[in-house]
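Repro:
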Amino acid sequence: MKHRTPREIAVDDQLRAAGAEGAQWLAAAGWGPPVKVPLQNAAKWQRETRERMLAAQEDESCTWCDHLLHGGPQPVVVHAEHPTHLVCRACSITARPHRRCAVCGEPAGSASRLDGREDVCMGAVAIYTRLRCPACFRRDPLNGTFGTGAG
């Protein structure tokens, strides 16, 4: 077992607390109760996003918004299109109208969660999210959100 420094232990504890707060926030925002899915059954996009985020943390190329650095424990959001930059939920909400479709790269055209084009997965320590434009969403509304398909 790898020896962990006090800083690593403290960061892990803060991330776990932020993850619990993130799950509560998602439920309060109308996303409904979380559904547990083993990592090997998670959607391909979520597994790939997680792997890229972890690799960036390992090689220390990962960056964070200022709110995560100076705002205390809070939910960490990972955007599928840029998983090497972690953001707080406020920055994620602000970025939403400007994000691109994770499938085709065109503007997602998604200003609110009510339009149904955002896929959200709550991981152990982060909220993973991707946006799809209306055309890509219509072609594949569920596969990739909860399934293990190519989406």
